[in-house]
């Protein structure tokens, strides 16, 4: 069924016709301009503190983070994490060029397969597209080189993320996605699926008892590559109470 047919059926159910031209123009303008909502002031800070805020918020939500100086340090970080969790050195890996280019041969005991996740997999290694400092959230758009199943089917998910891909607010993550996913034919492109992941899967639906791994991975580990010179030196960020203003940060001192 086409979009016009679906909308026509809804209009008939509401017993009204198409919107007047002025209202249609207003809605189309709003969709094209991507207006800002409330942006918490806590995400407006220097890059070192912004990265530290991201790390703090991941850990607050039961995730873990290890910062490494470059991609060459990733194999050792993966091997050490799996050993610390008493997990086999075996994982399904997203077939992303950045992950494939990592020098895995330096850790020959690591076993990996570049593919989607299967129900029998225990560990996945996913490519981190972007992350949001204000909540410690990973933005993971679906793509052939970034299978969504790697975020859902395993007990333990490891995400390799570059520090240069950490932004302050959600709006900035959406801006990056729109800017980097465009084609001449349609004028724009959105992935089939975009997952926002904040910590391991968890639920407290039953007797208000927190259970990790309720609907997905029970462990989330982020390997953060320090590729952003502006984010160094690594400092600890204090987390102030959130303050929001329409369309931008709060005034200094709020």
Question: Nutshell version of this structure?
Answer:
This protein has 254 residues and is of the alpha/beta class. The protein has helices at 3-14, 21-33, 47-60, 74-84, 97-100, 170-180, and strands at residues 38-40, 64-68, 90-93, 111-114, 123-127, 130-132, 137-141, 156-162, 166-167, 194-197, 202-203, 211-212, 219-225, 244-246.
How does this model look, in words?
By secondary structure, the chain is an alpha/beta fold. The protein has a domain at 64-230: 3-Layer(aba) Sandwich (Rossmann fold). The chain contains six helices and 14 strands. The protein has helices at 3-14, 21-33, 47-60, 74-84, 97-100, 170-180, and strands at 38-40, 64-68, 90-93, 111-114, 123-127, 130-132, 137-141, 156-162, 166-167, 194-197, 202-203, 211-212, 219-225, 244-246. A six-stranded parallel sheet has the order 2-13-8-5-3-4, with helices on both faces. The chain has a four-stranded mixed sheet with strand order 9-6-7-10. Strands 1-14 form a two-stranded antiparallel sheet. Strand 6 (130-132) and strand 7 form a beta hairpin. The relative contact order is 0.20. Residues 234-247 and 249-254 have low confidence and may be disordered.
Count of helix runs: 6
Poorly predicted ranges: 234-247, 249-254
Q: Tell me the series of helices and strands, N- to C-terminal.
A: HHEHEHEHEEEEEEHEEEEE
Mind telling me which CATH architecture of the domain at 64-230 this is? 3-Layer(aba) Sandwich
Q: Kindly, what is the distance between the CA atoms of the first and last residues, rounded to a whole number of angstroms?
A: 51 Å
Question: What integer value in Å does the Rg equal?
Answer: 21 Å
Q: Residue-averaged pLDDT, rounded?
A: 86
Global morphology: globular
- How do the strands of the widest beta sheet line up side by side? 2-13-8-5-3-4
Helix content: 25-40%
The proportion of residues in beta strands is 15-25%
Total strand segments: 14
Name the CATH class of the domain at 64-230. Alpha Beta
The CATH superfamily of the domain at 64-230 turns out to be NagB/RpiA/CoA transferase-like
Largest sheet: 6 strands, parallel
CATH topology of the domain at 64-230: Rossmann fold
Structural category is alpha/beta
Protein name: L-lactate dehydrogenase complex protein LldG
Domain LUD: 108-225
């Amino acid at each position: 069924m086409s979009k016009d047919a679906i909308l026509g059926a809804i209009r008939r159910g509401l017993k009204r016709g198409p919107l007047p031209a002025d209202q249609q123009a207003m809605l189309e303008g709003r969709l094209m301009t991507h207006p800002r909502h409330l942006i918490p002031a806590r995400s407006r800070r220097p890059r070192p503190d912004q990265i530290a805020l991201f790390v703090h918020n991941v850990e607050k939500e039961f995730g873990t983070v290890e910062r490494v100086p470059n991609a060459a340090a990733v194999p050792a970080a993966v091997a050490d994490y799996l050993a610390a969790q008493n997990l086999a050195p075996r994982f399904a890996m997203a077939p992303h060029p950045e992950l494939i280019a990592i020098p895995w041969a330096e850790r020959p005991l690591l076993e990996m397969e570049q593919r989607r996740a299967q129900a029998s997999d225990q560990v996945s290694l996913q490519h981190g597209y972007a992350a949001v400092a204000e909540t410690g959230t990973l933005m993971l758009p679906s793509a052939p080189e970034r299978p969504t199943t790697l975020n859902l089917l395993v007990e333990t998910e490891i995400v390799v993320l570059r520090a240069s891909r950490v932004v302050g607010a959600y709006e900035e993550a959406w801006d990056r996605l729109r800017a980097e996913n465009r084609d001449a034919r349609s004028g724009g492109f959105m992935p089939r699926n975009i997952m926002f992941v904040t910590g391991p899967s968890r639920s407290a639906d039953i007797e208000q008892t927190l259970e990790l791994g309720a609907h997905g991975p029970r462990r989330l580990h982020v390997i953060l590559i320090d590729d952003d010179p502006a984010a160094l030196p690594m400092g600890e960020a204090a987390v102030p109470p959130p303050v929001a203003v329409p369309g931008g940060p709060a005034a200094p001192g709020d």
